[in-house]
Amino acid sequence: MYVQNANVPERKPVTVPGLHAMKAQGRRIVMLTAYDASFAWQLEAAGVDVALVGDSLGMVVQGHRSTLPVTLEHMVYHTAAVARGLSATLLVADLPFMADRDVAHVLEAAARLVGEAGAAMVKLEGAAPHVIAAIEALRERAVPVCAHLGLTPQSVHKFGGFRIQGREQAAADHILAEALAVQAAGADLLVIEGVPTALGERISATVQIPVIGIGAGPHCDGQVLVIHDVLGVTPGKRPKFSKDFLAGRDSVAAAIAAYAEDVRSGAFPAPEHCFN
Ligand code: KIV
Question: Is 261 among the residues known to form the active site?
């Protein structure tokens, strides 16, 4: 029988100001995706700082080729399930494709993900003018925001696939400008995905908000991975920037603990997980 948070050591809840303090103190932030209560409990037990209910669930849970078919109903369902498995870990939920089409839809989605499902923060992709307006509107309502730049999966068709971004100087400068824009609009956290290590380092050193990398090199303020990649159960080819932490270990708990330890020590990501 499932007993919520039985035997999980008590820890202080992770908060948004707490994440800012971690950046200031040079303590790396551990973030990992979860899509249900049982895995949320595993994250909680391993002392993961931030749980992300990513719209990657469209690929790893639902079996789609992209994140685009994920709906707000799906996100609310999975976010509520994850929230039931957490106590101290901060919960971030993705706004699905087109939920950012106007400010009214963004606020409606945030009301459901935060008010109904139990997220503490919502994540939006990109820095187009409508996204900046959305971040400002959420800031006015005191809803914490995680921005997401670089290889933003909801732009897969525009990019022509899941391709590394910011390789040319002009593109790198543009992503840095976007990072400053989302920070100015009120974002509290920034995920930067699929960019060269030098750009991940430049962005992390330039903005004040914590930067969480995924395929963005070791110099970010924290790291995030999809839990299916960490456990080596992703169907098909695992992304270069990920690592199977279950290989050579005998339990899910040990794999998640090793991931957390390697992020905190800086051992992950290693050069073979990075883009130059
Ligand atoms: O949807 C997701 O899981 C994400 C992470 C990969 C950052 O956005």
Answer: no
